[in-house]
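Before a colleague's protein record goes any further, I have to sign it off. What it holds is a sequence and that sequence's fold in token form. Would you go through it and say whether the fold makes sense for this chain? The record follows directly below this note.
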Amino acid sequence: MGAGEKKNACSVQYRRPFGCAVLSIADLLTGETKDDLILKVYMCNTESEWYQIHENIIKKLNARYNLTGSNAGLAVSLQLLHGDIEQIRREYSSVFSHGVSITRKLGFSNIIMPGEMRNDLYITIERGEFEKGGKSVARNVEVTMFIVESSGQILKDFISFGSGEPPASEYHSFVLYHNNSPRWSELLKLPIPVDKFRGAHIRFEFRHCSTKEKGEKKLFGFSFVPLMQEDGRTLPDGTHELIVHKCEENTNLQDTTRYLKLPFSKGLLLGNNHQAMKATKESFWITSFLCSTKLTQNGDMLDLLKWRTHPDKITGCLSKLKEIDGSEIVKFLQDTLDTLFGILDENSQKYGSKVFDSLVHIINLLQDSKFHHFKPVMDTYIESHFAGALAYRDLIKVLKWYVDRITEAERQEHIQEVLKAQEYIFKYIVQSRRLFSLATGGQNEEEFRCCIQELLMSVRFFLSQESKGSGALSQSQAVFLSSFPAVYSELLKLFDVREVANLVQDTLGSLPTIVHVDDSLQAVKLQCIGKTVESQLYTNPDSRYILLPVVLHHLHMHLQEQKDLIMCARILSNVFCLIKKNSSEKSVLEEIDVIVASLLDILLRTILEITSRPQSSGSAMRLQFQDVTGEFVACLLSLLRQMTDRHYQQLLDSFNTKEELRDFLLQIFTVFRILIRPEMFPKDWTVMRLVANNVIITTVLYLSDALRKNFLNENFDYKIWDSYFYLAVIFINQLCLQLEMFTPSKKKKVLEKYGDMRVTMGCEIFSMWQNLGEHKLHFIPALIGPFLEVTLIPQPDLRNVMIPIFHDMMDWEQRRTGNFKQVEAKLIDKLDSLMSEGKGDETYRELFNSILLKKIERETWRESGVSLIATVTRLMERLLDYRDCMKMGEVDGKKIGCTVSLLNFYKTELNKEEMYIRYIHKLYDLHLKAQNFTEAAYTLLLYDELLEWSDRPLREFLTYPMQTEWQRKEHLHLAIIQNFDRGKCWENGIILCRKIAEQYESYYDYRNLSKMRMMEASLYDKIMDQQRLEPEFFRVGFYGKKFPFFLRNKEFVCRGHDYERLEAFQQRMLNEFPHAIAMQHANQPDETIFQAEAQYLQIYAVTPIPESQEVLQREGVPDNIKSFYKVNHIWKFRYDRPFHKGTKDKENEFKSLWVERTSLYLVQSLPGISRWFEVEKREVVEMSPLENAIEVLENKNQQLKTLISQCQTRQMQNINPLTMCLNGVIDAAVNGGVSRYQEAFFVKEYILSHPEDGEKIARLRELMLEQAQILEFGLAVHEKFVPQDMRPLHKKLVDQFFVMKSSLGIQEFSACIQASPVHFPNGSPRVCRNSAPASMSPDGTRVIPRRSPLSYPAVNRYSSSSLSSQASAEVSNITGQSESSDEVFNMQPSPSTSSLSSTHSASPNVTSSAPSSARASPLLSDKHKHSRENSCLSPRERPCSAIYPTPGETSQRLLFNHIGDGALPRSDPNLSAPEKAVNPTPSSWSLDSGKEAKNMSDSGKILSPPVPPRPTQTASPARHTTSVSPSPAGRSPLKGSVQSFTPSPVEYHSPGLISNSPVLSGSYSSGISSLSRCSTSETSGFENQVNEQSAPAAGPGYSGPEEPVRKESKTPPPYSVYERTLRRPVPLPHSLSIPVTAEPPALPPKPLAARPGHLENGTRRTEPGPRPRPLPRKVSQL
């Protein structure tokens, strides 16, 4: 018991409340599986509220309950299973293997199955009210329940406490402590069998449970309730208050007769015995609920079933039937029906109408979804149990009565109920008639037929009425039509098929045909037709032929209005399903006749309508039309498949006028075009597509005859013929007919069944085209594109049939206009778009060419025809190449090259501007993708050049919106500038900035003008501040027939990527052409390579030759600027190949070492719209060994000068490059380097055998001596800057320099070396083009010669601690240009074959052009280290020649040929000093401390273009120099300012190097006291013939004019974005002369400008010693 109760052991058991747990399964119903859910157990705070604890927990009324303990709970897992119980048993059989209990719903389910048997009584023990019974405290009440049958025996095991619990014979309630008003609310199920129900009752016994030691249970009362009432009704559902009858503990309740006579419910006492009611204060409440399929609680139902016992109540019972619950009726369905037909047989006259209404009510009750499954019960009843043989008369009579009154009745709800039930009414009628016939042998048959006919006549009349007003009539018509088709099968049981078909046809034919009938009625009419077509009646051919016209009539009506298309499609589908293909039955052919005549036209119109409707009306509508389209298409194809020749002939004959036929043909051709659309069928419906195409081509073949017969000659109709051709073309082009894409087996099957339908249609096109005659002109050029598309299909037969049509078109246009420009234009336009789509191949190109050439052989216009065919063929070649290239994944040179080829073809050969612009933008996109920004800018520039700065409106095109021409050009300019900026081609961007700024300025658009000027300024900043890499250039030859047409057997020069060297470039090319073979030599291939069926690549590096030298030769121009002009706007490239001619001298290979120099000229300059351009012209020149030697020395001298200059101007971070270069030259010379040239060319044998080389030999000697001078000055500079740890190396170099001089036969430099080198009178040999004169005009005009792009003029001067007091003041003034080049700073030493081997002029491929004994030479930075490998075949590393000078043009060289004999070398010691004097070249490399230029002949003229003025240093006067003009034309000398420098204190200069000089003796500690500063003079001009007699000796006191003259004209930067500029030879920069020692010069003193303190110790030497005439030498140039 509870708290405070005694805990003594007790043998008696009773139930007590402990706890309650509740779980919500809402989450489970959403589909989430819940595993291991914990149910917490709660207990009541107050025991009396136990009955509602679960509701309190659900409502979360926490104050009324609490947890039983922290760990108390139940763990459960739940799973939701879907399906009925049988399905679940099958699918989850493992679940049922563990004794699962199945709980049925409390009450009936929504659908009651006919065979379901159930008889469950649910009793809820609610509560009780009891007295104390003389006790001071309330009782502890326990209720015990028994089920007692009529005999008094207790029924065993019919009390169920819950699912899974074993049944019990008695029930004990739980006990509430001391509670006289206990509430239990316990629900029990009593599954009592029906046969035990009658007479049984439930007894409740009440006991007090003692808490004493014995634990006794004392009986103090009981209640009972019978399960069935006396009239047969069961205990009604609801709550019952039972009387508690008091009794003693020992009362015997076994004898039930003693208490069953007593009242059991207080409800029965209310009207009978009020006293008894008052006497019994104790009550007990229960709630009952019966769920039974056999027992009823309804008295009306029982009264009806027992109608014979109360005949007077029949009318009332029939009326009350409609009020009875449907579940009660269906439970006793068979009994109820027997009852109704029994009453009808009893008195049909009196009860006929009532029974009919009741029957209608029951029939319609079964239409409800809840009782729908009871229809089979009724069907079974009709077939097996129904016995009303006479019922049909009354049923027909009442039904006709109702139908006749439909049109008059105001309220039609009941009539509609009757019409809704007509199916089962007819079933009863038919079954009743059959029973009657069986019983009577078929009597009254005619009478029955007449009744049915009359009934259907009434129906037809009712159906033919039009609804006026409310529409109730139309609703009744709709109700009848919806259920009428179900009657057909019943009528067929009694009537012949034809009879029923006629009845139905008459009935359906009576429907109103007006279009404005109710939409709902229209839909029901159509549904009725649909059910008719689906019925058994329609499947019979005989009845079908009768019904078909009425069906087609209604279909036609609906299709015409485009209403209920889905239903129409379904009906049509069913109609065609019954027509068998290839059926020769007469009925089928007749049906096809009827369908074609009635439906073909409207069917075509319907397909056109639904396929042309806008698809924006919602996805549901779209799907609906899509489904419908498929249905109608299938129906059309099915109909056309069934049509025979006779049908087609009848169809064509049925058109009364040509207009009708024309409309029909246009309509059917349009529909066929729709059927061919790819989206018409799902992708994988190949068979369906093939069937459709087979039907289409068959139909087209029939209709083409009608076209020929009716629409040719005077009746010609362009529109219908055009529609025909258009259909034929798209038919052939269908993807599903391209058999080449099928697998071999699939292709074979298709060909076996259908053949190649493309060829069939192609032949038909050709045939129809030939029939056109002169009308062909209507289709030229419109059909060229479509026919071209057909011919591109890879089907040989089709091509052979169709290509000749183009000849026909050319012929007809030639007749009309005298040319075939239209044909040509259309062919070219369409070819591009079609081939870019992947159509066409090489075979087609050859076939096109051969067929048409053969066709036009005999034509008068053959020549122009051949031209057209050739043009189109060439275009195909390029388009095929372009397509193949575009298939590649990454952007490569092949794609770009192919696009360039096609772009140029469109512009130059076809003049197709729009296509040209399209390909410009395709090329632009390719460049952007490959990050070729400079090329992208040049490409976009092509379009920009087509536009003007005008306000002409331009249409929308590509990605450009509609705008004015000015706006588009502005947009293009900005895009081009941006790309030039990204490609670091800032100079070109500046040009465009200026152009667009002019436009802004002209429009006063100062805001944009300001932005543009700032952008221009930023580009200038980038030029000066940012590093630019100089690309390498490579020559690539593509040989062999396997290359695309635009590459085949052509050679190109390609601009490499940044940091890309020969090996990387070669690998890239081999990756782009994986099948190519790299050729291992640089020779031109022979014809066998050209014609080989392979790919050969020949690759080697080439040297760019800048066309304009002006900027490169100008002094003071930073290298950042010059670097642009070295590698931009390049048209010409050079490649040298060394070879030995004659016998090779093993002792001295230079005697026979010739160089083959190849110059390549491109069609366009690089960079441009592509990274490579084709070579337009090549020139090959052979250089003799002597010329080669001269060029090698010139280049090496120039390299030395450059490095020395860079070192002086502090442009090198370390001195290593200079050290390496000096070491290479000196060490090589000591070991026989330069001496090899002496041995080769200075020997008597060579001079005698080559008398023509006298000047060249002299030039070579001059260069050798010049090199010695440069080396000496270089050693002086080196001594100044060399770090301490490299002093030993410097000493070694100085020592070796003596050895070198001795090897050259130079002990002391004679007077001949004093003068600056001059040129040979007849000009330098070819290889000496680099040389440039460097003389000054008498008037001091500055003439700037060309110089190396990397040579830095020495302007600023620095002092050296190693110089003497004399020289240090001068050397301290040496200044250098502030700009520095990282390329020079990063030079690293590396071994080389010779100091003379790394020469620029000898081309990248000259690997050894110096004596073989040479050991070392300097190398440049890594950038240049790999720039000149030995082409594809010799990729080994060697010194870069990028810093070497570039030879000038031939026209420049010719200017030197006017130099007179006075410049020849002289060695006669008897000549006077003035006679020996030569024209010295003032130079920044002068060995004289204060060396000034000599005065030359007064008659000298100067050729000098204007030069930008330079600031004059005011610290010293201008220098006066002289130059002699090469031109005899008289011209006033021009005056120009010459930059003056602080003169050296040394007045007289030694012409040679003193052998005991501290530097040369290795005494580096005392410095190079004899070396003076390097003076710089900026001179320019061409060397002229020197008149020796006119050059007077200058006295030591001579001084020149001091007034500086500035020239104001300035040459603009020579770059242009747009075109190649052919410029005149530009002035050349000054040379670098060699500084000499401080010993007195052998020549007469040079005139010096008057200046204070220019003599050391105030002395001056006045008489120089005699000296021989120096050898002329040529200064190195760019």
Q: What stands out?
A: Residues 1-9, 274-278, 617-624, 1307-1678 have pLDDT under 50 and may be disordered. The first helix runs from residue 26 to 29. The chain is about 45% helix and 10% strand. Residues 777 and 815 are 10 Å apart (CA to CA).
